[in-house]
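Let's practice the habit of predicting before peeking. Look at the sequence and jot down your guess about where helices and strands might fall. Then scroll down.
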Amino acid sequence: AGNTGTEQDFLDSLIGADGADGADGTDGVDGTNGTDGISAYEEWIAAGNTGTEQDFLDSLIGADGADGTNGADGISAYEEWIAAGNTGTEQDFLDSLIGADGADGVDGTNGTNGADGISAYEEWIAAGNTGTEQDFLDSLIGADGVDGADGADGADGVDGTNGTNGADGISAYEEWIAAGNTGTEQDFLDSLVGADGADGVDGTDGTNGTNGADGISAYEEWIAAGNTGTEQDFLDSLIGADGADGADGVVDPKDLTAIGTSITVTNGIGATLLDTSIEVTDGGITAIKVNENVAGLGLVKNPTTNALDVQANNGLNVDTTADAVQLGGALIKPTTIATSATNTLALTGLQNGDFEDNILVVDRTSGVIKQLKAAMPTFFYMPSVIIYTAADQVPGGDVFGTIDLYAKYQQQFGSPVASNPGAITSLPVLPRSELDYFITFYDDTVFANVAVSNMGVLTYTVLPTAEVSLGSFMNIVFSVKP
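Done guessing? Here is the structure:
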């Protein structure tokens, strides 16, 4: 019939609203007492049942209905109590669950005893109706009738006895124990506290230390050694004294023959020219007169101009404009630059960078120089997100069982909801392709078919046997590609 409520609500609904008081009538003659009717318990026994009155009362409670689907986790009873405007500790909330004693029941009027008859349900069946006792009870609720004429007042009945006080309800702790849990009240209170959230991501690396002080110059070392003078004096001191003149050379004119503008040396084996100056006229020595093997290491004879060209490779190049060998170029073989505690290697004048740049690192075994992202750790935990366990939990625009992990990371790191007032840095957001994605843990009693794509998209299913009302989580780690 569309009604809702407890059995007590149903019984209360059977009592109609009070009619208007009629005019006082004359007292009638008391009727003779009728034979006592049998109780509902006696009717139950008469119907073939056996047991105590408690068994009869227990039989009025229907079987449990099928379990409904689990709803989303609600807030705790204590939080609901606070939300209702109450204040106090969890113990204050537990104390508030013990209600005050109920008021005494209203005295009922004594009715006249009627003759023993069949039960109302049996009369309903005898009248041609079919159905259960519940069908009969449902049929008793009809539309409101028209008020009848006032009847003559009957004699006042004897006051009924006071109703018994209702039993005190059990506390939240007692309900927790009744549900199969064990422990003290403190254990119960501890159980209301949820598990710790996943660890936050690691903080960024500290700033680089300041550069060390410059060493003193060679001139300053010369002064520190006890010398005095200007820098030019220091430079002059580096030039040694002239050596002693050598002995005069011996020239055998028979070995030198002048032919035109050239000098031909004949029989010159073992001959020595000492303290001799030879002048060559412009164009006197041409490229064609240069021996093919005159070029040494690092030099090559140009076949077009016959000039000697300098070769440079493996990180060096010949700048034809500057006419000089300069740094720059591809390495063509594994190359080692040996340093020592004295002969160190340093670069000066370097510019400041940021977290998007790379830094140089050295392999501890081979000494090979490599690059590494500047301010990034090699891995970090993904920021916290909700892993939905039911379709009705998923907000609009999302798909149950699919989460774009990279998009969640980009949103949280790129647009934090709060930061310190003096913040001068931003959180690094790496490109999607520079990360690898790892699931290091999930509850296999809740999730199945867990996978993550190369683009950082997580897919999963929830087991039909999972206790989704208890909540669950995953550990997700981002690894920075080298």
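How did you do? Residues 250-254 have pLDDT under 50 and may be disordered.
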